[in-house]
Every structure is written in C-alpha cells, then in structure tokens.
Amino acid sequence: MSVAAVARKDFRDGIRSRLLWGLIALFVVSIAGFSVLATRNVDGVQAEGELAILFVLGLSFVLAIVVLVPLTGLVVSIKSIVRERELGSLKILLSLPHTRREVIVGKFLGRSALLTTAILAGFLPAGLVFAIRVPEFPVPEYLAFTLVTVLFGIVFVAVGLGISALVSTETRATVAGVGAFFLLYLWDNLFGYVNAQLDLLSGDALTFVLRFDLFTVFFDVLLTLFSLRYDDVPSASAAVSGQLAGGPEVAEIPAQPFYLQHWFALVILALWIAVPVAIGYLRFERADL
Amino acid sequence: MPAITVDALTKEYGDTVALRELSFAVEDGEVFGFLGPNGAGKSTAINVLLDLVRPTAGGATVLGMDAREESKAIRRRTGVLPEGFHVYDRLTGRQHLEFAIESKGSDDDPGALLERVGIPEAVDRKAGGYSKGMAQRLLLAMALVGDPDLLILDEPSTGLDPNGAREMRELIREENADGTTVFFSSHILEQVEAVCDRVGILRDGEMVATDTIEGLRESVGSGARLRVRVDRLEDDALAAVRSLDGVTAVEATDGDRGPVVTVDSTGSKTAVLSALEESGLTVEDFATREASLEEVFRSYTEASA
Fold first, then answer.
1. Which residues does chain B have within 8 Å of residue A286's beta carbon, measured at their own beta carbons?
2. Is A76 part of a structural domain of the chain?
3. Is the pLDDT of residue B290 over 60?
C-alpha cells in the first residue's frame, strides 16, 4: 500500500514536469519521427523488415539509446529524493506512515514509470508506423528491443536514485549525476586503461568485468530475448565476441563459463539496478532528515 | 498511559548539543504546548518522535510504541503538521489529500477536509500557487486524515493571520474534545495560553518548566499590578496597604484624573481596596493587570536557570 501510494504520488507529480515533457518531445521526434522518415520510400523494396529494423538499430540507437535514454533515466531520478529533502516535502512524505525503504522503492517504481512513459511515447508510435508501412515487420523483435531499452533506462534510474538518496544537497546530486553519466559511458575505456596499467585481470575474468559495460548488457539482454525465438543466436556475450552481431565463428564458440553466456546479462542487469538503489537506501536509512 | 514519553533524550550534531537529556511526558487526552524560543530544540525533539532524526542517547515512545522501532505504526495513528515543509507544487490540494488518504488507508473526503480547515475553494488548484497560510491549512487537513489519536503540530500558526490562528485553536479544541491528544510547539505564547492544558518550556535543549499555565504564573511569583484611583492621598492609607500580606510595592502618583495608587501584589486585591477605604479614602476606580504569560516565558528563557 505504501509503496504504491508513494509511486503513484511520484508519478503524478513527475508527469507534470516541464523538463520531462521536453524529453518526451525529443523521444517522439527522434524515434517516432525517424520511423516516418525511414519508411517513406519502402514500397516495393524487398526484405524491408530487416532493412527497417537495421535502421532502428542504427539511427535510433545512436539517438535514443546512447544519449536520450540514459539522460532521461538520470533526469527523472537524480533529484527525486534530495530535492524533497532540501525543500522539505520529504517531511510530508515521512509524516505519513511510510518507511524509508517504502519511500525508496516507491520512488524507484514511480520514476521508472516516468521513464517508461517517455520511451514508449517514442517507441510505440514508431512501432505502429513500422508495422503498418513495412511488410513482415518483425513485431516481437521490435517489442523485445523496446523492452530492453526500457530496462536499460531503468538502470540509469537506479543509479540516479541511489545518488539522490546518498547526497544531502541538490548541487552534489547534479555533480554526481554528470559524473555518473560519463563514468557509465567510459566504463570500458577506464577499466581497460587501469587494467592495462596495473595488469590486474586477463582472460575470462577480464571479459566478465567488461560485461558490466551497460551497452554490452543491453545487447546481451537483447540476445537473450532473441534466443527464446531463434536457435542460431550465439550463446556468448557480446563482450566475448567483441562485436555486436555475432558471425558464425562466434556461434561455434564452445561452451563458455556460465558467467560469460548472454543470459547471465540478466543477472548483471539486476545487479546494476539493485546495487545503486541498495547503497542509496543504506545511507538514507541512517540519515537525520 | 502517556501519549508521549521522552526519556533522557540527547541529540548532538557534531559539537552542538541540540537536546540535553530531555525528559517529559504528554498525558493521553491533553493539549500540551511545547514552548521555547527558536533554536531551543523543539523541532529536533519532534523529529525524534517521528524518527526523522535519530537520538544520540535516550529515547521516546509515542502511543506506547518505540519511536525508533515502531515508527510506521505510530505514524499510522498520528497526524503530523511538520515545520519547514514544502508542498508538491504541481499537485492540487485534492491530490495531496488523496495521497494522505491512500497512505493511511482511510476513506476521508478531500473536499470535507478542506472545508474544515477553511479553504474548500482551493481543492482543485495546484498547491504551488497557495499562500503560506493556505499551505499550512492544507497540511493541517492532511494531518486530520484518518481521525488520528494524536496530533503533532510543529509551529502550526506559521503563516496564518490572526483569524487563521484563531481557527487553528478552535480546530485543536474540537479535535481534543473528540479525544485526540494534541502536542504542539510554538514560540508564540498567546496561542498556547488559550488552548493548552499544560505547557513545557524548552531552552537550549532542556525542559526548564512543565506545568499548567496557572502553575507557571505562580511559580515565577509574578502577581498582579493594581492601579487604584482615589479621591486624595494620605500617608496612613499607603502605609496600611504596604503592611498587607503579599504587597511588594506601593507607589502614589498624580494621574490626569486624580491621584493614583499603584500596588504590586501577589495577595488579595480586595484586601488592598478595603485597606484604602478603611483609611477613609474613596476608591473612584481601579484596574488590574495579570502578569502576562510573555513575562513568565521571558523569565524562564532569558534569566539564568
């Protein structure tokens, strides 16, 4: 009851944010707008379905996945707690019978719902356009792609919420949010650099750490979903193959350790969501508010 | 069973001591005024009761439950008007109340609640556009959700005009008549004087007095000042008054409309008037003034303990 009440309140409040509306507009323009452009001249072209999905994976990916989804995830969450704390509305929230854990979980759900709304505002109209204009458009794959995009964004909601629960001022939250944004992008490079300098890990262990790169997680989760439908999806992580679309040689890689198989990305995804929220919660639980 | 017990509560922020072994109890069914100048530690103590702040030492119980361990259960039965709150600017009054109603699992009507606090017309307006006084009333309405057993009101009159403050006092009385224990803090005394069964005065994190208003007055020994207009002045009469029990000062002055005898006394006023008349003076008129609670308050919070 508490979690739902907090989540609903948070969603109602957040959905009226002008900033969120700006981001939703960007989703509509970049994803739905792109779908209209991409399907304008497909009449008569064969194998349009694959062509279109390639376009989605290409251009929309660049626009939406790389920038807009992480940005929106952080924007909807980074101030979710610290702002209420600084302004004083948190006193309203915690004067009512909610535990701090329920506040964190409720906010996580509410903010995740905001992010999902923003993503769907772009992806659903785009899907409709593709489905109507492109013969044999692979609807299940598109839905899987949308779902993974949402999950990917929720990781950023979790990171932003964790930061928001951890810090005591909005300014610090903003600085930490910008830092997190770049850190999550540069995970691969930073870790690769540090590892090369210090010679810490190699082989499977190194690959395992590199799997935590969020874009790798994104593809591996997508591969996992695709493997439910297709038998020829390579079983190994994109981090193993070193390339996004696995060629035949990847598919033939003999049994990898379980933690390098693509399904293990679900575990990594869960960790990416649970750990930042848990860290923020542990700090928030002890704080004087 | 007391509604609130605070036991040797200490709260330190670094080197600053906000509360020093604070102990007091609020009885079930009473209206308790928690008085003290700004910065005395009133809000810190209230925040401990609500588990917003964790004590350095000591503890508190609310409605018989541990403030730290059973906070949620406490808040389910308690209505709170916090201090220094901020409303959700983008949500309407109704949405605020719906949130409180859902949170407490009650079935109150948002419109009726806002009617009670005097702002029914604001129900569908966004709270961001409310005045400070309206926001205060909205929060009070939220505190009333679910017919709580205990109301904790931190500086409830903040932002209210005199009329609003009076309505607030009436509401406190109504709720109390209904059986609700009311614990409220204030640095303004008139508000406390009018509604409280008992008050506690906090200074520098310590309770320097807990008593009824009358008891407080007596304990500082501040009696009344009596001004008597007489037809003429006579030394014998003044001496007779001076010799009365409880008289601390007698002064004779010439007022605009005749001579005036001013008497400070903690004893009987009638005795003063009788003494003057028995000495042969005619009492034309007289006025008394009680020591104001303000003076009582100041004697506690400014003088050295």
1. 54
2. yes
3. yes
What's the rounded Cα separation, in Å, for the pair A98 and A289?
14
Nearest residue in A to B148, CA atom: A96
- Whether A255 is covered by a domain: the verdict is no
Give yes or no for residue A56 having a pLDDT over 60: no
Give the Cβ contact number of residue A21 at 10 Å: 13
Closest-CA distance, B245 to chain A, in angstroms, reads 53
Residue from A237, A243, A244 nearest A221 by CA: A237
Inter-chain residue contact A88 with B72, CB threshold 8 Å: no
How far from chain centre, in Å, is Cα B40? 14
Phi, psi of A225 (to 5 degrees): -65, -40
Asked if A17's CB is within 8 angstroms of B85's CB, the reply is no
Residue A11 pLDDT level (bands cut at 50, 70, 90): very high
Q: What is the pLDDT of residues B228-257, one digit of tens each?
A: 888 888 888 888 888 888 787 888 888 778
Q: In what order do the strands lie in the sheet with B16-26?
A: B16-26, B4-13, B57-62, B65-66
Two tokens, residue A210: 């590199």
CB pairs below 8 Å between A and B: how many? 84
Give the C-alpha separation, B173 to A216, whole Å: 64
In angstroms, the separation between the Cα of residue A165 and the nearest Cα of chain B is 14
Contacts of B156 in chain A (CB under 8 A): none
| pLDDT band per the 50, 70, 90 thresholds, residue A161 | very high
For residue A144, what are the domain limits? 2-201+266-286
Closest by Cβ to A97, choosing from B13, B53, B76 = B76
Judged by DSSP in three states, A30 sits in helix
The pTM score is 0.82
- Other beta carbons within 10 angstroms of residue A248's beta carbon come to 8
Does B47 contact chain A (CB < 8 Å)? Answer: yes
Examine residue A235 and state whether it is found in any structural domain, yes or no.
no
- Residue A196 maps to a domain: yes
| Number of structural domains chain A divides into | 1
Among the partner-chain residues A13, A94, A96, the one whose CB lies closest to the CB of B88 is A13
> Is B103 in Cβ contact with A98 (below 8 Å)?
yes
The SS3 call for residue A50 is helix
CB-based contacts of A191: which residues, under 8 Å, 6+ apart?
A209, A210
Q: How far is residue A229 from each of residues A137, A144, B80, B254, measured CA to CA in Å?
A: 15, 11, 55, 107
Specify the higher pLDDT residue, A105 or B221.
A105
Rounded CA separation B33/B194 (Å): 10
Rounded alpha-carbon distances, angstroms, from residue A28 to A31, A123, B174? 6, 8, 54
Q: How far apart are CA A190 and CA A44, in angstroms?
A: 47
Chain A contacts of B104, Cβ < 8 Å? Answer: 96-97
Q: Which residues of A touch B84 (CB under 8 A)?
A: 88, 91
